[in-house]
Design goal:
Order of helices and strands: EHEHEHEHHEHEHEEEEEEHHHHH
CATH superfamily: Aldolase class I
CATH architecture: Alpha-Beta Barrel
CATH class: Alpha Beta
Number of strands: 12
Strand order of the largest sheet: 7-8-9-6-5-4-3-2-1-10-11-12
CATH topology: TIM Barrel
Bound molecules: S-adenosylmethionine, iron/sulfur cluster
Radius of gyration: 19 Å
Largest sheet: 12 strands, mixed
Strand content: 15-25%
Oligomer: single chain
Number of helices: 12
Structural class: alpha/beta
Distance between the termini: 26 Å
């Protein structure tokens, strides 16, 4: 296992031991909060990291102290060489995880186990089939529910990512929590965040305080038990007394958790970003292909990382649409 290195420690002393790698900009869903309605212009495939390049870059990060890698996208499972990528990454001394919409899970589940993957985040924003279609513009609700059961039967630890949007699915908070009475899922309510082309408005974000108020009002404050979060966890986690599962809230908009951020993001076309909200990214892939060292580029990205949300500290700043329109859409960053 790589040790802590100064290359991945920023000017605020935050050590970055968690790398999120986007495998593709493509997706088999069209979630309206993620994918701009007009679609996204995709990078030409020769500009995307091959499985070997992705491994080479990942291995260097692991040497420098990364001990957790999450595969994301777009939808990571639409990448045809996903099994090969996973197999190669599994040779690294690192905890591998995956974020997926679960549509193709049945096709790849044997590869997950073989690669030692134990924890999977599944995105599911509603428990209602019709609403699923409205949010994702596709009709895969049954398939996602079926694959969730499959993952559960195979013993994977499952977190469910729910992006809450006012008047879209915020009336399902209690239903999701009720689901955890008998299912061991960890539901993670994510505040709706602004990205290019996703029609974000501050008033559509359902904040931590509002979520907690709804839950404690319904179940009773004394039934809500705070759980201990891991040191760099983005979610504040709770459970309802006696329930099998738990829930957490990821409050990027109303309560950013930047002071303990340990994440770096590698896009499918080999660009390194220090923050979801940063418009700045530097190109590792072109340097790698030219046979140049990529460490100085990594160092520059890490050292330029700002204290809070890429410099968008004040809520007014963060909420200014001009800032989001310059940023990539979420589907091209890798959430
Ligand atoms: N396709 C995979 C999936 O949906 O799980 C992985 C990629 S997706 C971009 C990763 C996560 O980002 C998902 O949980 C998704 O809900 C979340 N996400 C996308 N757009 C978002 C937004 N505008 N605000 C908050 N979360 C968002
Ligand atoms: Fe695809 Fe995931 Fe974005 Fe939905 S959230 S469009 S599943 S990448």
């Amino acid at each position: 296992m790589g040790s802590s290195s100064s290359l991945l420690t920023d000017t605020f002393g935050r050590h970055h031991n968690y790398l999120r790698i986007s495998l593709t900009e493509k997706c088999n869903l069209r979630c309206t909060y993620c994918m701009p309605a007009e679609g996204v212009s995709l990078s030409p495939s020769k500009h995307l990291m091959t499985a070997d390049e992705l491994y080479e870059i990942a291995a260097l990060f692991v040497q420098q102290g990364v001990n957790k890698i999450r595969l994301t996208g777009g939808e990571p499972l639409v990448r045809k060489d996903f099994p090969q990528i996973l197999e190669k990454l599994a040779t690294l001394p690192v905890a591998l995880t995956l974020t997926t919409n679960a549509i193709l899970v049945d096709r790849f589940i044997s590869h997950f186990a073989a690669a030692g993957l134990k924890k999977i985040n599944v995105s599911l924003d509603t428990l209602n089939a019709q609403r699923f279609q409205k949010i994702t513009l596709k009709d895969n609700f049954k398939q996602v529910k079926k694959n969730l059961k499959l993952l559960q039967a195979e013993g994977f630890e499952i977190k469910i990512n729910v992006v809450l949007i006012k008047d879209v699915n915020d009336d399902e908070i209690i239903d999701f929590i009720q689901w955890t009475a008998h299912e061991p899922y960890n539901i993670r309510f994510i505040e709706f965040m602004p990205f290019d082309g996703n029609n974000w408005e501050r008033s559509k974000t359902v904040g931590l305080q509002e979520i907690q108020e709804q839950i404690s009002c319904h179940f009773g404050l004394d039934q809500v038990i705070p759980l201990t979060s891991a040191p760099n966890d983005t979610a504040k986690t709770f459970k309802i007394k006696g329930f099998k599962g738990a829930y957490g809230i990821i409050s990027t908009v109303t309560n950013p958790f930047c002071d303990s951020c340990n994440r770096l993001r590698l896009t499918a076309n080999g660009k390194l970003r220090s923050c979801l909200f940063s418009e700045e990214e530097l190109d590792l892939l072109t340097a790698l292909r030219a046979g140049k060292p990529i460490e100085p580029i990594i160092s520059k990205v890490v050292n330029q990382k700002k204290a809070i949300r890429a410099g968008l500290e004040a809520p007014t700043n963060f909420e200014d649409p001009a800032h989001h329109s310059k940023n990539r859409s979420m589907i091209r960053i890798g959430g």
